[in-house]
Amino acid sequence: MILITGATGLVGRHFVQRLMDEKIPSRCLLTERLARRVPWDEDHPHAPEIVIGTVLDEEAFFRAVTGVHVVVHLESALWWGRRRDLERVEVSGTRQLVAVARSARVGRIITLSQLGATPSSAYTLHRIKGQVEEVVRNSGVAYTIIRSGIVFGEDDAFINHIASMMRVNPLFFLMPGIGEVVLHPIYIDDLVEALYRSLRLIDLVDQTVEIGGPEYTTTQDMLFTIMRVTGMQRVIISVPPYALRWITVVYSRILPRSLMTSQWLDILASNRTAPLGNTYESFGFHPKRFEETLLTYLPQRRHFLSLLRDTFRRRPRPV
Predict the structure, then answer these.
(1) From CA 313, how far away is CA 316, in angstroms rounded?
(2) pLDDT grade for 285, boundaries at 50, 70 and 90
(3) Residue 19: which domain range?
(4) How far apart are CA 40 and CA 42, in angstroms?
(5) Quick one: CA dihedral 31, 33, 39, 41, positive or negative?
(6) Count of domains in the chain?
(7) pLDDT in tens, 160-211
(8) CA-CA distance, 92 to 13, in Å (whole number)?
(9) Residue 86 and residue 90: Cα distance in Å, rounded?
């Protein structure tokens, strides 16, 4: 039995579907609100069990981990949370996970982190992710930590948000800095494949693995690629990152959600890459290329409708 936290998030829902396709028994810890509208077929014969609760509810969490061999910990406030949400959901939630996992004698914890994560980072996102990693490493439970580059896919909150911002402004796009930061994007299906294979790879026990796609890209090249794929040509204007952070704060006070968040800017603050061959060496498959994959779905996406949906969607309640 496998327990998945954060099962309705971008990575979580794809991973749950993969387990369903492979007929692997699974269980999800969800709030009552999320349990009412799960993103998979509840009538599927291999649909996961659902335990109502949160990662901060010790009693519910213990019920969820009872009889579980592996916990795949994907609970995150990455795209919507403020600093206090990140600390509560990710750090406090992981501490609770460690406590109940030890009590229930869980075999292993597999968790997803970010390239560049370290407790001493100057950037909030990577500092929080680094603290989460330290909690898992010192848990006394076998673990696997997968640090990934930017995850992109049909329903991601990064590449699609860039395309949505380009759609709403037909003249220009504000780029943080001069676009020299190097990123290492990975397709959502490839990340899910890595998570799935990690369930059976004994060599990854008590290891931290860094993975990304088959190529690096700078921020500027990424923007040019999105414009080329969608046909939305915009003038790229370089803006100091601190100025964009101020703009983000203003937007977050006016709108329910800002497409460009402080975490979004943390990721673009410095180079975040892994060795190019790591995905193949660690998991035995070649990931998909960035632009070729974008061509399969990004031109057909309705970016303006996505902008309205994502901007006016209510911010989730912290657990």
Answers:
(1) 9
(2) very high
(3) 2-217+251-312
(4) 6
(5) positive
(6) 1
(7) 889 988 888 889 998 988 889 999 999 999 999 999 999 999 999 999 999 9
(8) 23
(9) 5
> What CATH number does the domain containing 16 carry?
3.40.50.720
**Kind of pairing, strands 70-73 and 151-152?**
unpaired
Instruction: Name residues whose C-beta falls within 8 Å of residue 66's C-beta, 6 or more positions apart in sequence.
Output: 104
What DSSP state is assigned to residue 199?
A: T
Torsion of CA 85, 90, 94, 95, to 10 degrees: -50
User: For residues 34 and 112, what is the distance between their CA atoms, to the nearest angstrom?
Assistant: 21
What lies within 8 Å, CB to CB, of 212 at 6+ separation is 115, 148, 149, 184, 185, 186, 273, 274, 276, 278, 279, 287
- 8 A C-beta contact, residue 178 and residue 223: no
DSSP 8-class letter at 265: H
Three-class SS state of 264? helix
**Residue 129 belongs to a domain:** yes
Residue 106 counted as domain residue: yes
The CA radius of gyration of the chain, in Å to the nearest whole number, is 19
Contact yes or no for 99/58 (Cβ under 8 A): yes
